[in-house]
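Lay summary. Proteins are chains of building blocks that fold into shapes, and those shapes determine what they do. In this project we predict the shape from the chain. Here is one chain we studied, written as its sequence of building blocks.
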Amino acid sequence: MKDLRACLDGYRSVGEVESEGEFTLSRSHAEKKLQDFRLPEARLYVLNLVSACLCGGASFVDFRADADELWMATDLKVDDLAPLEELSSIVFASQTHPALKELAVGVNGSLQLSPSLVKLEVWGETEGIEVKWEGSGFQATSTSPQAEIPGARFYIKEKPGFRTARKFAGALGGGMVPDSEEDAIFRYCNRAPIGIEFNGKQVNRPLILGTKRFRVFADRELGASHPLLNLGRRKPLPSPGNYTGLLARGGRLAPWVTLVVNGVNFRMPENAFRASDLRGVVYVDFLAKDLSQVQLVQDAQFDGVLEQLNNLARVL
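And here is the predicted shape, written in a compact code that computers can read:
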């Protein structure tokens, strides 16, 4: 983690602060510094793509993949597409739309696979943009909308190698390769509040609580497709914060609590809660990820959410 912090300090040392207080980085500096930024596992770039879809208000995410290619389609909506012309720089811009920043991190993260081609298309109601990488930097081109509704598409083509051979062999055997994008999506996005499919298979899985002693709490009216909508016959409790979730106690199942931040699961350690039999899932999108992208920042907001959940658990 210290190395990651030092990396970020290095970004800021060559950046500029604009009049509104936004931290920015020139394209040349950003591309150079991005060489130092690496996801813990290259395949995890797909988690940022999922988060981008949630931040952009998408209602679905559809992945298709084979041994050396992956496609993603979604109906996210972002009003201002101009920042995508500088896909490297907006990774470090402080006031970029969260959906665009997640897209930028995901696309840049995918370059760790040394692909032969990466292409991102995003469009609104009247205009669109295509950003392409073919081994020598990003090239952005203005386009017309690719569909009647706003959305985005992502495509990556890997070069033949050991990883693609493993995925090919895994597909022949009907199994899931542990270090594949498919495994990452099914492992870390199975609690997303919108529908996600991978090669036609539903990623979202039902909640198995092992007890009738549970309550749903919400800070808003749940959408028709929300996984918590049809759980329980009683009206949801008011949420103590800007989040929605479910907590359960009792039964024989092992304790677990997962925080879902923009579609991605973050499993909490058992000692984070005072109740030893607590299970649940909480959708809390305002928590921040650290630079590694796979852990949450344990700041005052994080501590506050855990304390509120501990208090909720006492009334179950």
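What the prediction tells us: The longest helix spans residues 300-314.
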